[in-house]
């Protein structure tokens, strides 16, 4: 079975982080952060972002004492238009009346639901 580009990216980041920090939670956090830097969570899979960079305020602050809320892989830096497109693909109801923050929360919820399946 062939892996996706996102899975290859995460595997490479995991290997690198394990070499740097050893196996364990810290290496996992670093690899996950690297994945979120280039990909965003859409439903039950990861899609390449239009731009590289931190996806939420927690990733932006970085480091072991990062502050802010994680958006669970949703790119909070994306445009409202992009978030509306993601919400449409996830069939989120009421999306046309939502502001950007509400769209992010609705996408997070839809992603969690899709990942549980």
UniProtKB/TrEMBL annotation:
Pfam families: ChaB, Rho_N. GO terms for biological process: DNA-templated transcription termination. Residues 1-82 are annotated as: Disordered. Residues 1-12, 37-60 have a biased composition (Basic and acidic residues). Residues 83-111 form the Rho termination factor-like N-terminal domain. It comes from the Bacteria. This is Cation transport regulator ChaB. It comes from Mycolicibacterium mucogenicum DSM 44124.
């Amino acid at each position: 079975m062939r892996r996706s580009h996102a899975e290859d990216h995460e595997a490479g980041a995991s290997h690198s982080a394990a070499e740097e920090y050893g196996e364990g939670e810290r290496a996992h956090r670093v690899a996950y952060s690297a994945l979120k830097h280039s990909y965003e969570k859409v439903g039950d899979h990861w899609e390449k972002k239009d731009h590289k960079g931190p996806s939420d305020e927690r990733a932006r602050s970085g480091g072991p004492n990062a502050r802010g809320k994680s958006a669970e892989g949703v790119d909070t830096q994306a445009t409202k238009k992009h978030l509306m497109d993601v919400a449409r693909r996830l069939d989120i109801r009421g999306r046309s009346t939502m502001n950007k923050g509400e769209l992010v929360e609705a996408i997070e919820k839809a992603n969690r639901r899709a990942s549980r399946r």
